[in-house]
Amino acid sequence: MGKGLFFLCAVGIVLxxxxxxxxxxxxxxxxxxxxxxxxxxxxxxxxxxxxxLLLNAGDGVEQHFNxxxxxxxxxxxxxxxxxxxxxxxxxxxxxxxxxxGLFFGxxxxxxxxxDDAPWYQALSVGLRNLxxxxxATLEFWMVxxxxxxxxxxxxxxxxxxxxxTEDGKRQARHIRITAVGIPSWVWRGDYWFDEDAEVFxxxxxxxxxxxxxxxxxxxxxxxxxxxxxxxxxxxxxVVRDFExxxxxx
Length: 249
Prior knowledge:
The chain has one domain (5-248). 8% of the residues lie in helices and 51% in strands. The protein has two helices and 17 strands. The strands form two sheets. It has a 15-stranded mixed beta sheet that branches.
């Protein structure tokens, strides 16, 4: 499972009267390049809607869908990977996360208790909240996609830095995330954003403890159409699941 791709996620839906419909024009769409050792892959990132937002990222094999509230916190996350026999949905219900579906071929039904902190499964959007905030630190919940461990995380806004991109040098805001209770030398992830446009530019972090492979995700100048995947069927499944859950609340 792509442990780097999970840190992004995107696509969109628009609330129309009492139902959801897929928007024809996305708010934002980008192509990203992920490098892990000698392996390189591209995936599309598409964001649409207002309340809710729907965020989707994928390369046609692994797909991540997030339904987000206006504060950019996750309400539903849906992960599919046919090769790995995974078709999993996680929904927030108050102070709990409800996990349902197929995970590496195993049927799963689980409820995990959390607190009132936000759930940011799509950090490429959720961490935007730190860019213009008066506070430099926030804590949130996140689900690790390869183990489904639910972790409380901390994000800290750091300095503006010059980074190299495919389009040349750009100034970017550095944000570092760590797991609460675990020293940063054991694990950390580093994000860089264009602070004015709030565009995610780069991620760097290991997929596990020291010695694990390094993941690098960067905004690509490659046309989005060349790295887009077909999300249609799975997206509609997520839309229907979200509508059904809202009606039951």
